[in-house]
Write a structure and sequence with these properties.
The chain has helices at residues 7-29, 34-56, 88-91, 154-163, 173-181, 196-208, 241-257, and strands at 61-64, 78-86, 100-107, 110-118, 123-126, 144-148, 166-170, 187-191, 212-214, 232-236. The chain is α/β, with parallel strands linked by helices. It folds into two domains: 7-126, Fructose-1,6-Bisphosphatase, subunit A, domain 1 (Fructose-1,6-Bisphosphatase, Chain A, domain 1, 2-Layer Sandwich), CATH 3.30.540; 144-257, D-Maltodextrin-Binding Protein, domain 2. The strands form two sheets. A five-stranded mixed β-sheet has the order 1-2-3-4-5, sandwiched between helices. Strands 7-6-8-10-9 form a five-stranded mixed β-sheet. β3 (100-107) and β4 form a beta hairpin. The protein is globular and about 50 Å long.
């Protein structure tokens, strides 16, 4: 891979390459030992991405879910934030396609490039050529909320009930945000625990495509912080953001005063 490629292309090409390697590993190893497959997938993809970024962008720092956190990144202007295998559970289950590879670049306070590979779906979404969003969604169409298939936050179901929405369970955070980008869902909302690598790349692509992306209280998503935890997120079409943030606040207020407090 040529070092003269721009950052958007580097993110796209590395996510694509890592995804193809993960597909080959999955096919070769099979699904009889899911824990072994998950471990191999995490390590193999991390090593590929970390090594390639070291060659292509040797002056940049890297924050990876699978690597040691080099605190020098806090004094660096450019940091690649990567999740070598987002959705490890789904990766190790035969037939599942909702897992991803995330590669993003944070530069001087902003996400400036990103790519999400969905290898089992044969798709890569990136800031090279962000997906085109339809100008409008049908007003009569029922809202579709994508949420965790294994750890769905309780407030999501209450929010869905309030909005008359359908909950679409899915694995990887990258796959969920890409579902919004591709029109499979209208919003992704999560609270209860994530890290910067879970959302950096899909948020970079979502913003480039014109989607709203914020914390669930409406505040800014910020990256390359000393503590990489980033526990909640809302990604949706921009015209829905005010309504959805109000719904989240209402559900949170009810939770704090009503019978669901203990849950």
């Amino acid at each position: 891979m040529s070092s003269i490629r721009n950052d958007h292309e580097v993110a796209r090409d590395l996510a694509t390459e890592a995804g193809q390697q993960l597909l080959r590993l999955r096919a070769r190893h099979g699904f009889e030992e899911p824990e072994v497959l998950r471990t191999l997938g995490d390590r193999t993809s991390h090593e590929l991405l970390f090594s390639a970024l070291g060659r292509l962008r040797p002056s940049d720092a890297v924050l990876s879910e699978e690597g040691a956190d080099d605190r020098a990144r806090l004094d660096t202007e450019r940091v690649w934030i990567i999740d070598p295998l987002d959705g490890t559970r789904e990766y190790s289950e035969s037939g599942r396609t909702d897992w991803a590879v995330h590669v993003a670049l944070w530069e001087r306070g902003e996400l400036t490039a990103g790519a999400v590979a969905l290898p089992a779906q044969g798709s890569v979404l990136s800031t090279v050529d962000p997906p085109w969003l339809p100008e409008e969604r049908p007003a009569e169409q029922r809202l579709r909320i994508t949420s965790s298939r294994t750890r769905p936050p309780e407030f999501v179901q209450r929010m869905a009930t309030q909005l008359g929405a359908e909950v679409v369970p899915m694995g990887s955070a990258g796959a969920k945000i890409c579902a919004v980008l591709l029109g499979i869902a209208d919003l992704y909302v999560h609270a209860g625990g994530q890290y910067e690598w879970d959302s950096a790349a899909p948020v970079a692509v979502a913003r480039a495509a014109g989607l709203h992306a914020s914390r669930t209280d409406g505040s800014e998503l910020t990256y390359n912080r000393e503590d990489p935890s980033l526990p909640d997120i809302l990604v949706c079409r921009p015209e829905l953001s005010s309504t959805l943030l109000a719904s989240i606040r209402d559900v949170a207020d009810r939770d704090s005063t009503g019978p669901h407090t203990a849950g």
